[in-house]
Fold each of these.
Amino acid sequence: MRTDSRLSRMLHVLLHMARHDRPYTSEQIAGMLQTNAVVVRRTMAGLRAHGYVQSVTGQGGGWTIACDLNKTTLLDIHRAVGGRHIFAIGLDNDNPSCAVERVVNSAVADALDRAERLLIGSLGEITLAELAEQFYAICRAELKQ
Amino acid sequence: MRTDSRLSRMLHVLLHMARHDRPYTSEQIAGMLQTNAVVVRRTMAGLRAHGYVQSVTGQGGGWTIACDLNKTTLLDIHRAVGGRHIFAIGLDNDNPSCAVERVVNSAVADALDRAERLLIGSLGEITLAELAEQFYAICRAELKQ
DNA sequence: AAATTCGCAACATCAAATGTTACAAATCGA
DNA sequence: TCGATTTGTAACATTTGATGTTGCGAATTT
């Protein structure tokens, strides 16, 4: 399949929403992401189901952020968008009858598991607030020039 | 796309070849992997290009292992099969004009890079000889029962 | 009532691995 | 040399899950 960019996309949107006091429509968000409003609704439905954003229908409606930036991590967003596959690499057969294959699977799965735990750990340590602060730091640096 | 199982498959084949003094035909290997002989030839062509295996055409031909098990790591095989994408997850846009998106990309890419380095490091530390030894250890344990 | 906006189903597209078919080329044995 | 075996390779089909698209109903505001 294509590479799953839902995490990056949603983080991008959430940081914009954090600096905006009115709702963004799906069309506006689709413009930010250079995609389609239906893709936005579909992906953000996962965030809404976990309470990270809210949506309102009708005129003047749209999407607003609904979570504490200090308590929401990149891992929370990753899980909310439903990303199942982290790796493009995998085992050939999860329950091999061949003992050679079981040894191979065990070694490869072990390496993959360690990398996955590191990635999950990294994502779990970064909050939306920290990303927002990085953005403000860049803005302040550019103002000084 | 589907998950890339070329590394696991080739490791499986290499360990079988290491215990076999005659060539395996692509058909025999396809039988081990429950796939098609053309898939086998295509994938193993990468290993051959790096000198890890040899192939001989014609009657009595087939594939033989041609590397030092003690010097060949899982990383060598991973690279030989041409696996480019390690992650199913990625950035939405590699060169964003939006400063918010650049902050997001930097954080996500950083987490992915660290996990990738750990995985590459793990694969580079395991030799084919070590996998073969794990297999023999299992065989010895089963004989004792 | 009209315009706006989300919700959602249904289907199309994309990308890369995997699967399949067909045939040429090389090698071995009789 | 002939025939069987086996690899080499091109061309095309299939699979899988994210992404893209169209259409229309439902909710909300004015």
Note: Residues 7 and 77 of chain B are 7 Å apart (CA to CA).
Amino acid sequence: MAKKKEPAVKDLSTEEKIKAAAKKLFTQKGFAATKTRDIAEEAGINLALLNYYFRSKEKLFELVMKENIQLFLGVMIEKINNNPLPFDEQIVFIVSNYIDMLLENPGLPFFVLNLLQSGNAPDGNPDDPLFKNIEKMRNSFLHNIKAAMEKGEIKHVHPLHIIANLMGMLVFPFIARPILMARSGNISQAEFEQLMIERKKLIPEWIKGMIKVSGG
Amino acid sequence: MAKKKEPAVKDLSTEEKIKAAAKKLFTQKGFAATKTRDIAEEAGINLALLNYYFRSKEKLFELVMKENIQLFLGVMIEKINNNPLPFDEQIVFIVSNYIDMLLENPGLPFFVLNLLQSGNAPDGNPDDPLFKNIEKMRNSFLHNIKAAMEKGEIKHVHPLHIIANLMGMLVFPFIARPILMARSGNISQAEFEQLMIERKKLIPEWIKGMIKVSGG
DNA sequence: ATTTGTTTTAAACAAATGATTAATAATGAT
DNA sequence: ATCATTATTAATCATTTGTTTAAAACAAAT
């Protein structure tokens, strides 16, 4: 007789166990590839309880999605809006906080990017208020950059290059980690974290290099 | 009576129509979210023909996967191996060629990254020769960077930072395009392409800023 | 102890989905 | 024209998958 598999998440209420399992699997594999039975098994609960507590797979996904987008945007929005600091100091804060957040939620960038790709979410319509939030953040950022350019604080480059590079340098290692690091092992896990911490100092320097006005 | 939908891909042999449709959908939505009936409809063919020509959904996916990984690595590998040019000139070539390739295959980076994520492909085992190729490329790249450091050509930073930044700056805009660009419209399509072309010049400069030795 | 409301379970259902079949149409060689 | 091969189609099958149901277990109150 096969011993019943231990739930991966324990010591939580059933409802929370389900949500945690769903978050893990949805984040890792997306909506379509995650089966309700996978979630039930991961949570160590009976399949029917998923519908009992959350009505449907879609509802559960939306819940996870909302929390994840909130997490993804939270740090950024907080730091960007009405920030009186000079641009390069804003960057330092954003980078540091964001990397901390990503180290705790390494799967987050892929989840969000997956969402934006068409067809991988049940309700990927761009009118969703969540997507509006992303656009709002983008616009605040653009605004800040343009303001800094007017003041002569930073060089004139298309602001989208700056956003792309900042976000790319922040987020890309977490998406492409299997390419960057040799698979397997705690060694590479520790090394990866070490690198990400280094980047807290390095990314602001690199960005500064991109935006500093030539004639000092 | 509803007019029968025109196939999105025409003037090709049935086999090629299926492959093209599969490539489009798998690349866009991944393995699990793409249904065989979607592929059949997109290709404008009878569902049974998919199995007639390709045996199974999995086989078809593997075919697309192989071609896509080949595409993803081809340019890189070609330029990296045994390249006698100084490092910063290598970069110029790689960046230019790679952006051209990405403009023609904008969905490619997401597809490959999706692949590396666990669970989104039917055979995502890291022992697959295809994955070995990615690792091989990474290693060649590392080797080149370390060599350039020995020669004093470039600053001493952890080589993975350089790879992450180069790849990130190349690839990230194509993954995060929905965040960067306002959705919809030919205007933003043209603007996006324009930006990517600008990056051919800019990325090498940015990289140079990251690796140039201080006491030049 | 009984009742009442809540949680959990095993079983089943209906729809979706990947694959197959058997018959028909098209193509090409003789 | 006839035959053999290949390509295509509609129908069907078997499994997977999201959801529901009805009964059982549990907990708290009376």
Note: The domain at 11-55 of chain B is CATH 1.10.10.60 (Arc Repressor Mutant, subunit A).
